[in-house]
Amino acid sequence: MSAPTSPAPADGGPAPQYVYGVTRSGVSLPDGVPGVDDRPVSAVEGGGCAALVSDLPTGRPLGERADLVAHQRVLNALVEAGTVVLPFRFGAALADRDAVEKELLTGNADRFTSILDGLDGRVELRLKASYVQETVLREIMDAEPEIAELSRRLRDVPADAADAVYYDRIRLGELIAQAMQRRRDVDGQILLEAAAPAAEAVAPKTPVREEDVLDASFLVRADRRAEFDKAVEELGRTHSGRIRIRSIGPLPPYDFVPEA
Q1: pLDDT tens, 127-157?
Q2: Which of 69, 171, 199, 231 is the 20 to 30 Å CA partner of 101?
Q3: d(CA 215, CA 159)
Q4: Which GO biological process categories is it annotated with (predicted)?
Q5: What's the whole-number mean pLDDT along residues 181-185?
């Protein structure tokens, strides 16, 4: 979820507000969790909701690593405390606290309430899985004779003749990448289908690295968290030595709220 950004006011005017996210009115903020620039976080209420804000730093643009860490730290603290929160993307700001109340909260109260209702009692968990490359490469060599033969021939080429087999090496890399993709398509679906029954919603992501098998977020009811964790543990045992699997979270539910 994102909100409009606003420039800093003239000197002496109300402080512009950095917005972390929205929760329900009456929220208890975690103690000792500073915001961007180590500024205190407070709540602005309106329309039955509360925006989590701090004064926006002046004299410099946002975007330092410390700013990103602070943004995530505030949201993580709420999630860890069991508070339902609609997280905003990094960089959301409004002109002052009055604008937060009237423009952001009052004008969107029904929509925010509906989203919070859908997230209440649920957590986002992210499942990441990657191949143990040595194991999967052995599988590929055992299962695909063309790749194994080309690999063997290239190993026997003397170093002073490496240029002559340049395109063969490219071809070998392409064949291995294709074989990895075929396995990823199958294994990724197996992992996804095994974890999904314990979740209410799933948001798969495109794997970034060649060895990545699955990267997906799951929206899980708190009372089914143990069931989800058990499914992940079983996957880890079943695929031990071949696929490394880890569960991350609970996280702010970015993947299960509208973007605008």
Answers
A1: 999 999 899 989 998 988 888 888 888 777 6
A2: 69
A3: 39
A4: gas vesicle organization
A5: 91
Pairing of strands 212-221, 122-131: antiparallel
- pLDDT surpassing 60 at residue 83: yes
Domain CATH for 232 = 3.30.70
- 231 found inside a domain: yes
Which of 19, 26, 17 has its CA nearest to residue 56? 17
The structure tokens listed for 163 are: 């240029």
> Is residue 156 classed as helix, strand or coil in its secondary structure?
coil
Residues 89, 133 share a domain: no
- My answer on whether 62 and 80 are in the same domain is yes
Q: Band of the pLDDT at 8, cuts 50, 70, 90?
A: very low
Q: Residue 62: exposed, middle, or buried by beta-carbon count in 10 A (0-12, 13-18, 19+)?
A: middle
Domain that holds residue 72: 17-120
Q: Is 208 a member of any domain?
A: yes
One-character DSSP codes across 59-114: SS-S--HHHHHHHHHHHHHHHHTT---EEPPTT-EESSHHHIIIIIIGGGHHHHHH
Cross-strand pairs, 2: none
